[in-house]
Amino acid sequence: MPSAKVLESKQARVAELSELFKNSVSVVLVDYRGITVEQDTKLRKELREADVKYFVEKNTMLKRAFNANGITDFDDVLNGTTAIAVSATDQTAPARILGEFAEKSENFKLKAGSVEGEYFDETKILALSKIPSKDVLLAQLVGSLQGPIQKLAALLQAVVDKDQAPEETA
Question: How far is Cα 46 from Cα 161, in angstroms, rounded to an integer?
Answer without folding.
Answer: 52
